[in-house]
Amino acid sequence: MTKWLKELTKGVVVSNPIFVMALGLCPSLAVTNSLDNAVGMGAAVIFVLLCSNILVSILRTWVAGIVRIPTFIVIIATFVTMVSLVFQAYVHTLYESLGIYLPLIVVNCIILGRAEAFASKNNIGMAIADALGMGFGFLLAISMIATIREILGSGSLILFSNTLFSLPVLSDQPISLFLLPAGAFLVIGLLLAFFRRTGLIKNE
Amino acid sequence: MNNPLTIFIGMALINNFILVKFLGLCPFFGVSKKLSNALSMGVAVTTVMVAASAVIWPIHYYILVNLHAEYLSTVVYILVIATLVQILELVIMRTNYALYSAFGIYLALITTNCAVLGVTLVNTSEGFNFFESLLSALGGGVGFSLVLVIMSGIRERLENTRVPQSMKGLPVAFMVATLLGLAFSGFAGMV
């Protein structure tokens, strides 16, 4: 049980997929322009990661080594298709604003990386813990980036179309740089440097 | 968006894959430490992007659309790309070994490069015809290589500068990307 908890918590801080391992940056930075998008992307990634880790772990003794990677990719692509169909049916606005980044979860290095490095070598329980830990670590990291970008870039914070708060001066004259793609690089770079400076994350 | 030049410039500069669409960031930060590696990677990615677009266009319009199975596109695209990369790797290995050893390892990495899957998804969602698809893939590849080469040039120089301890490595690379991204945002509205 303690080992299970250790696998669960490692993904959140110690080996956070975004800040420590710098994996899965591609489809994640693009959706951090608003908190809604980031939460939607995080939820989709958690679902795909959990399902693919479970299935890969179940199949790990049957899949021959040489066809390992293609098999994992097909498994992941199947779950991604499921997520995008569900999003298209029930949260259409989110589906529209995520656009091509939703199908691009297939090539999110975190998911294939965890299938290859963890789920294919461990039992189901451990694979679930790993998926949940990594998934929440990912959600936490991109929500953090999205919160900073949305507050500075638009002066307010909106979650599920409820305005959480809005800053008086900033909402009249928002720093739109933070909503530009360059703003995403700036925020993640500064956050990374800050975490290293405070010792939360070890230097390379 | 039907003028060929518009598509090419749009994909290469205005909607640059790395700096605007955030696609292909893994090789961008991983491979961009040396100029020569960056160039090989750029050429390899551009080749695969054009080849993948050429193969996927007929598959999408003649098979998936005819069978009303567009929902399978993600699965089909990634399988086609993975297979294509394997075949290209074999062909290059047999025909030109020098070239293979120059970018052999990068070819294998390209399967999980978001830019390749990204360009095929963009082609479909924009409704490009066959030649427009090829052109947009070429534009995307050229834009990708351009930024990769610029970045590697800057990072080679960064090696010799004194960077604060906590900014070393990735954080300073992100800062460089910020500045490049700002520069490229000047292309917005050009077309």
Task: Write the SSE topology.
The complex is a heterodimer of chains A (204) and B (191).
Chain A: H1 2-10, H2 26-29, H3 35-59, H4 68-90, H5 92-98, H6 109-117, H7 124-154, E1 156-159, E2 162-166, H8 168-172, H9 181-197
Antiparallel strand pairs in A: 1-2
Chain B: H1 4-14, H2 25-30, H3 35-64, H4 73-95, H5 97-110, H6 114-126, H7 130-158, H8 170-185
Helix pairs in contact in B: 1-7, 3-4, 3-5, 3-6, 3-7, 4-5, 4-6, 6-7, 7-8
Low-pLDDT parts of chain B are none
User: What class would the helix/strand composition of chain B place it in?
Assistant: mainly alpha
What's the mean pLDDT score of chain B? 80
Helix share of residues of chain B? over 70%
- The count of β-strands of chain B is 0
Helix content of chain A: 55-70%
Name the chain pair whose interface involves the most residues: A-B, 44 and 46 residues
Main beta sheet of chain B, described? none
Lateral arrangement of strands in the main beta sheet of chain A: 1-2
User: Biggest sheet of chain A: strands, sense, closure?
Assistant: 2 strands, antiparallel
- Please indicate the count of domains of chain A: 1
Rg of chain A, rounded, reads 18 Å
Total strand segments of chain A: 2
- The topology string of helices and strands of chain A comes to HHHHHHHEEHH
Portion of residues in beta strands of chain A equals under 5%
SSE-based structural type of chain A:
mainly alpha
**How much is the average pLDDT of chain A?**
79
Strand content of chain B: under 5%
Gyration radius of chain B, to the nearest Å? Answer: 17 Å
